[in-house]
Structures are given as C-alpha cells and as structure tokens.
Amino acid sequence: MKTLNLATYTSIKIGPVVDVQIITEPLHVEHFIIGGGNNLLVSSNPPKLAMLGKVFDFLHIKNSLLHIGGATPSGKILSYAKKHNIKNFELMQKLPGTLGGMIKMNAGLKEWEIFNHLIAIKTEYGWIEKKDIEFGYRHTNINGTIYEASFEIQNGFDNSLLEMFKNFRDNQPKLPSAGSCFKNPPNNFAGKLIDEAGLKGFKVGNMAFCETHANFLVNLGDGTFEEAMELIELAKKRVYETSGINLYLEIQVIKS
Ligand SMILES: Cc1cc2nc3c(=O)[nH]c(=O)nc-3n(C[C@H](O)[C@H](O)[C@H](O)COP(=O)(O)OP(=O)(O)OC[C@H]3O[C@@H](n4cnc5c(N)ncnc54)[C@H](O)[C@@H]3O)c2cc1C
What is the b/e burial string over 57-74, where b = at least 16 CB atoms within 10 angstroms of the residue's CB? Predict the structure, then answer.
C-alpha cells in the first residue's frame, strides 16, 4: 500500500488522499488501475485504486522485439528510443503518461498512435496480439491490467518529428489539466464546438475551459471535481444545442 495525494499526483490537481495498492506480480486485480494520472478526473469518493510497482518499469530487447513494462514513463521510453536509434516512439515527446495508460487510451497525436507499431500486450490473461484487440481513436477494449507490451524495432529515430511534437505541445496550455477534455467528433474539433457554444474561457469556480485552447479543462487553483463536472455537463448541453453534435469525454471520470 502507498498513500497518494491525488491533488498533487494527478495532472489536473484534483482528488483526495487515498491508499493505493501497489501491484508487484502480474495477477488479476479488482481495484481500478491508475497509471501516471494524466488523463484522470477523480471524485472525492473514488473506488479502491491500484498501481503498478517499480518492477514493471523496464525496457529490454528480446527476440528482436522491444519489451516495455506497463509502469515505464513516456520520457524514459523516448530517451531509450533516441539512444538506441529506434523510430516510432517520437510521439512520446511531452506526452505525459506510463506505457499502460498510453496503451489503454491508444494515446497519440493525429495519425501517430501508440498502437501503430504495437505487437502484443501482456495482461493477467497472458499475451494478447494486436489483431485480437479492438482499438480506435483514444479507445481500446482492453479489460485487464497491462503489465508489459512488445513493439517492432525499426532503426532511424527521427529528430525532425520530435521537433514537430515539441512545437505542437509547447502550444498547449501550461495550467493543470488532464489533456483534451472531449474527443474530437468525426470531421470536427471539440475545441471549436466549445468555442462556438460560447464557453471558451468560461469558468465555474476555479475550473475553466481554457482561453487559448477551449478543449482543455484547466484548474485555475483549488478547482474541484464538482466544478469540473458542472462545466463538462454544461459543454455537452450547449454544444448539442448549438451544433446538434454529442460530445464524448476523453478524460476518465473516476467515481464510486
Ligand atoms: C498536458 C497534457 C497533454 C496531453 N496530450 C495528449 C495527447 O496529445 N494525446 C493523447 O493521447 N493524450 C494526451 N494527454 C492525456 C494523457 O497523456 C494520456 O491519456 C496518457 O495515455 C495517460 O497515461 P497515464 O499513465 O497517465 O494514465 P492514467 O491517466 O493514470 O489512466 C488513464 C487510463 O488508463 C488506464 N490505465 C493506466 N495504466 C494502466 C495499466 N497498466 N493497465 C490497464 N489500464 C491502465 C486507467 O485505468 C485509465 O482508464 C495529455 C495529458 C496532459 C496532462
């Protein structure tokens, strides 16, 4: 067990102090799994939580594949790929998360997604090949806990791609957030729809849709779960009224 203050641990800086179970073996876990907490909005009364221990923070090459542990942070994976001249991991530049969270969310940017070069994942049910996993834009149907994954190895780390991701992310808001609040609807942008619904910069208490990037729900300081949820519900309602489009959450709301 580890005591974790979610108001400092999560990127949006909201949540209670909780005891989190630390997983040290690849067994079935009943608790809700958290990774780096970069895509989470946690209520003051969450379900029981667990996270992977340090034993799942690793990278090694086996049978010509790159094996990465589920708890390995994106920055460490990126440094390894750069050092060993392996391409296809450039998208992790300033993409906060652990491998488990990135795979579960199929994290990425535009056409660069973590699933593109994935071979298989290891959960408590054993190794599962990519072809047996349903995945799409910020979505997978993965049920268990991701303990490890394997990727193809291609030489040629691309520094120009790294620069492109860096420039893109440097334009994202610096205030605490959980990344994009809503998924982009097909052929549209959630931020544009929130702006057109008159909610860009709109505040409830200390939470707001960012002035510069309307799809980022930002914490202005001591913002609460309730304030965040009020804004989320308001955006869904207003956007539907103004455009007829339903918005679906990208951030994961965790409550009992
Ligand atoms: C400033 C900022 C910018 C961002 N930009 C992007 C972006 O460009 N593209 C993008 O895709 N995302 C972006 N995000 C969101 C976030 O980086 C990703 O969703 C990332 O994958 C979250 O990883 P995590 O380890 O923090 O997971 P968490 O937030 O802790 O968890 C996310 C989900 O993954 C599940 N999960 C975590 N670990 C495991 C595991 N081992 N096994 C099974 N399930 C697990 C959790 O249960 C939860 O459902 C951004 C976030 C921030 C704060």
Answer: bebeeeeeebbbbbbbbb
Last residue of a domain, one of 36, 54, 72: 54
- The whole-number pLDDT of residue 170 equals 86
pTM: 0.96
**End position of a domain, from candidates 54, 70, 87:** 54
* pLDDT above 90 (res 16): yes
Q: How many domains does the chain have?
A: 3
- Residues 10, 75 contacting (CB under 8 angstroms): no
Nearest residue CA, atom 4 of ligand 1?
Answer: 179
pLDDT tens per residue across span 46-63: 999 999 999 999 999 999
User: Vertex 105, ends 205 and 167: CA angle to 5°?
Assistant: 75
Catalytic residue IDs: 138, 180, 250
Determine the distance separating the centroid of ligand 1 and the alpha carbon of 149, expressed in angstroms: 16
Q: What is the mean pLDDT of residues 105-115?
A: 95
User: In angstroms, what is the span from residue 107 Cα to ligand 1's centroid?
Assistant: 7
The preferred substitution site among 27, 34, 217 for testing ligand 1, maximizing ligand atoms within 8 Å of CB, is 34
Same domain, 157 and 210: no
Residue 197 has a pLDDT of 98
For ligand 1, the distance from its centroid to the CA atom of residue 190, given in whole angstroms, is 18
CA-CA distance, 201 to 203, in Å (whole number)? 6
